[in-house]
Amino acid sequence: MNPQVTIGKTTFANPVLAASGTFEFGLKFKSVANRLGGVVTKAITLQPRVGNPPPRIYEFPGGMLNSVGLENPGFEVFCREVVPHTRKLKCRVVVNIAGATVDEYGELAARLDSEPVDALEVNVSCPNVKEGGALFGQQPSVVEAITTLARRRTTKTVIVKLTANFVDPVETAKAAEAAGADAVTTINTLFGLALDGNGRPFLGGRNGGVSGPALKPFALFCVDRVAAAVKIPVIGCGGIMSTADAVDFLSAGARMVQVGTANLVNPEAALDVWNGLKAHAEQNDLGNWDAVVGRTRRRS
Ligand SMILES: Cc1cc2nc3c(=O)[nH]c(=O)nc-3n(C[C@H](O)[C@H](O)[C@H](O)COP(=O)(O)O)c2cc1C
Question: Disulfide-capable partner of 125 in 119, 158, 188, 210 (CB 3.0 to 4.6 Å)?
């Protein structure tokens, strides 16, 4: 079995990634990170961000809402203090980037080009910031403009992380593909609102992003549609808690999967998903993932 997956210039040892924002920079659980295909970092912005006021997490049966608001140390501190450590990881390191303006994406892509990281995940889908974020990702023309800029200014693999908030991700996936993206991640969290029982918003940032098992059926629906509409690989994300979930996403057409909220429950969750996938491949005598990827469309 050859478990590797190649996206753009980057070959991942296996198809399982830790999703952005749920595994920090992969440094707290290195023994887990080292055995994954890769780690997607928390979003990095040009300037440091303090993020949204607390509370930032709201749990409900079936999932959670988060309103972290892209808290991060900023590009310079990331490169100076984090990258020297992430470069020693044995897995691929994908840097999730978020711009407050369209131009900032180009700037981040250009500056990261000379850093020892493997790929960029262009985040046009954060639901809990006032400027940019999902507002960018809702407009195919803006997705195209941002992807074009990133593509022009980096030689690294470019992955665009899509939103499905009030937009058909097929349209934005096509825009990203036309602008030269190597892959799309489908999907980021969905908008959500939690109240405190007295009619006031529970989260300090007011609105949040829904993640976890509740997201899975819709995320799977999006992957199925997007994978049928574009030629570039789709990375499935949304509610993957188990190997069975990951197999579903591959079946729906994803070439790779990202495990997010599950990491917050169990820091070994992504590794468990990978070990289960490996066992699945052995049991079914798979030479690679081709027989599984996209089989839903071949069977329906
Ligand atoms: C606490 C938290 C922080 C997140 N931060 C980011 C982020 O910085 N950038 C990003 O693109 N996605 C971020 N996400 C979204 C996840 O990467 C993922 O797309 C989403 O949670 C859906 O997958 P899941 O249901 O497996 O969690 C965050 C999610 C959570 C729960």
Answer: 188
How many whole angstroms from 136 Cα to the centroid of ligand 1? 17
The answer to whether 237 is a known catalytic residue is: no
203 within domain boundaries: no
Atom of ligand 1 lying closest to residue 40 CA: 17
List the residue whose alpha carbon is closest to atom 28 of ligand 1. Answer: 21
CATH code where residue 150 lies = 3.20.20.70
- The stretches of the chain forming alpha helices (DSSP H) are 30-33, 75-77, 83-86, 102-112, 134-137, 140-153, 169-178, 216-229, 243-251, 261-265, 269-283, 295-298
- Overall pTM surpassing 0.90 (yes/no): yes
Domain housing 13: 5-51+72-192+213-298
Spacing, Cα 61 to ligand 1 middle (Å): 18
Q: How many domains does the chain have?
A: 1
For 177-232, what is each residue's pLDDT tens digit? Answer: 999 999 999 999 999 999 999 999 999 999 999 999 999 999 999 999 999 999 99
Residue at 114 is within a domain: yes
Catalytic residue among 79, 126, 222, 237: 126
Q: Looking at residues 253-261, what average pLDDT do you find?
A: 98
**pLDDT class of 133 with cuts at 50, 70, 90:** confident
